[in-house]
Specification:
The protein is α+β, with helices and mostly antiparallel strands. The chain has a single domain, classed as GTP cyclohydrolase I, C-terminal domain/NADPH-dependent 7-cyano-7-deazaguanine reductase, N-terminal domain (GTP Cyclohydrolase I, domain 2, 2-Layer Sandwich). About 15% of the residues lie in helices and about 30% in strands. The chain has a four-stranded antiparallel beta sheet with strand order 1-2-3-4, covered by helices on one side. Helix 1 packs antiparallel against helix 2 (about 90-105).
Length: about 140
């Protein structure tokens, strides 16, 4: 497959019946935030794309069609927006770590993968950024 036809994000294989893990994800979440080390990046918001993959412990209780019994992607999206609204951050790595930490506020999250892409930085690149994976500390 030619590289210009390949998807930019390969789907993570996180869901696992044997380990009772559910995969909760957010794809291509567009956020404006103040991010970057250069002076011009400290006064004008930039577009970033956030992709989030969570491995969630399914637990032993049935969902019973109740949002309180699952990790809500809406809660995670609102958390990302709140972090972006906290103010300027220099590095995409810092933003990714803050998002990962926020995800672990929900005790059901076992691991998180965060991908942050700055979209309007390098002229001939669709995006630049970082992807991290973190596991809950035992």
């Amino acid at each position: 497959m030619p590289t210009d036809k390949m998807p930019s994000i390969m789907p993570a294989r996180i869901a696992n019946a044997g380990k009772a893990l559910r995969h909760v994800f957010i794809r291509d979440f567009m956020v404006e935030c103040l991010i970057g080390v250069y002076e011009h990046e400290k006064c004008s918001p930039q577009r970033v794309r956030v992709n989030l993959d969570l491995a969630v412990d399914e637990g032993e209780h049935p969902i019973i069609d109740d949002i309180l019994n699952v990790v809500s992607y809406e809660t995670m999206a609102n958390g990302i927006l709140a972090i972006a609204d906290e103010g300027h951050v220099n590095l995409v790595e810092t933003l990714a770590e803050r998002i990962a930490d926020m995800c672990f506020d929900d005790q059901r999250v076992d691991s998180v993968r965060v991908r942050i892409e700055k979209l309007d930085i390098i002229e001939n690149a669709g995006s630049v950024g970082v992807e991290i994976e973190r596991f809950r500390k035992v």
